[in-house]
Q: What sequence folds into this?
């Protein structure tokens, strides 16, 4: 089993738009979550790396409270990493998100009585089945609809 799984997004041009940055991070977390669940592994740590127009990079790492492959948890963590960078009016060339992995069977999952969490996980499982049958772009968040992922 590999120890890490990276996903990346390269813009067609150096991107200044904060909303496009967020869409890219969202696309990465959905791509990563789908891959992790397909490989039956979970992420312990996420590292977000930003490559700027001048080819310098910045990375931020955060350990997840609970090892997971749940897209919503990955998205919260990755967007938190992005916000922690405090980027304002910065031209970004690319993002990469790397997950440090552990075996899903060995990970501990805290059970919850939260109906919303259970519902989100069921929806995620149904979306994964649709992606396996109809392709990776079969189910996407609305913010990503109509956009082709660039790797």
A:
């Amino acid at each position: 089993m590999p120890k890490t799984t990276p996903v990346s997004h390269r813009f067609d041009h150096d991107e200044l738009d904060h909303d496009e940055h967020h869409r890219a991070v969202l696309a990465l977390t959905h791509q990563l979550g789908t891959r992790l669940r397909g490989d039956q592994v979970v992420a312990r740590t996420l590292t977000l790396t930003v490559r700027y127009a001048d080819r310098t990079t910045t990375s931020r790492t955060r350990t997840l409270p609970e090892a997971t492959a749940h897209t919503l948890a990955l998205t919260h963590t990755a967007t938190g990493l992005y916000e922690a960078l405090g980027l304002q009016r910065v031209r970004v060339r690319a993002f990469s998100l790397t997950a440090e992995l552990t075996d899903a069977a060995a990970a501990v999952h805290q059970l919850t009585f939260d109906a919303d969490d259970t519902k989100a996980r069921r929806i995620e499982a149904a979306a994964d089945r649709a992606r396996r049958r109809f392709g990776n772009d079969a189910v996407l968040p609305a913010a990503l609809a109509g956009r082709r992922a660039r790797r």
